[in-house]
Amino acid sequence: MGFRTGVIFAASTFDTPLLFTKFTEEQVIRAENFYVSIYNAPRGIPSCLHGVIGLGIIGIASKLHRWTETDLYFGLGSMILFVGATIMYIAVIWPNLRALANPTEAGYIVKAVFETELERNSNSFPPLTFHERLSVVQVVSATNIIIAALLFGVLLLQIGQWYVDRQHLNELNKRRNEQIAKLEQQRTQETRKTK
To answer: Which residue windows are transmembrane per the record (predicted)?
Structure first.
């Protein structure tokens, strides 16, 4: 989850101006270049990112395998949020990054989500206009913000589960110590009676 969060954190410097402030054409072009560079990065970087996503799902699923009562509330919620973030990455971010990196290929453009003024004819397929590229970059930016919120939710749920498990363990230790103290008291009373 750390590598994925790091990528989202780095992307947030490009995302927030496009979504929450008035932006310039230069900011749009910088964000587009950033996303295209992530898409065109050497194979190791996307493989590492996808591996971290897979490890996150395996980690949360393995926690559910031992299934405690807190996993019903916290672990299952974490799994749903993490899988939701992964689905958004696969279904929204990756197709839109492909469209940005390959702006003249119809197969990639059709799968992207963007606002267009004209219906595209499959015979003549001009590259994306600035307005369409802006729309694609804003979709990717908004999806990154949503994924960041989902991952933050996973983090909060995991912290909550750790806290509840810790409190439960402390309560069990307290009861055990009270029972040990009662047994010791009973033994001392019995030894006094036998004397």
So the answer is: 73-94, 136-157
Dihedral pair phi/psi, residue 112, rounded to 5°? -85, 160
The single-letter code of the amino acid at 53 is I
Count of C-beta atoms within a 10 Å radius of residue 165: 15
The pTM of this model reads 0.78
Cβ atoms 2, 49 nearer than 8 A: no
Q: Rounded to whole angstroms, how far apart are CA atoms 153 and 72?
A: 16
Which of 45, 15, 48, 54 lies closest to 148, judged by CA?
15
DSSP for 103-138? TT-HHHHHHS----SSPPPSSS-PPPPHHHHHHHHH
- Render pLDDT for 68-114 as a digit per residue (tens, 0 to 9): 788 878 888 888 999 999 999 889 988 898 888 888 777 777 777 76
Q: CA-CA distance, 138 to 188, in Å (whole number)?
A: 75
Residue 104 one-letter amino acid: T
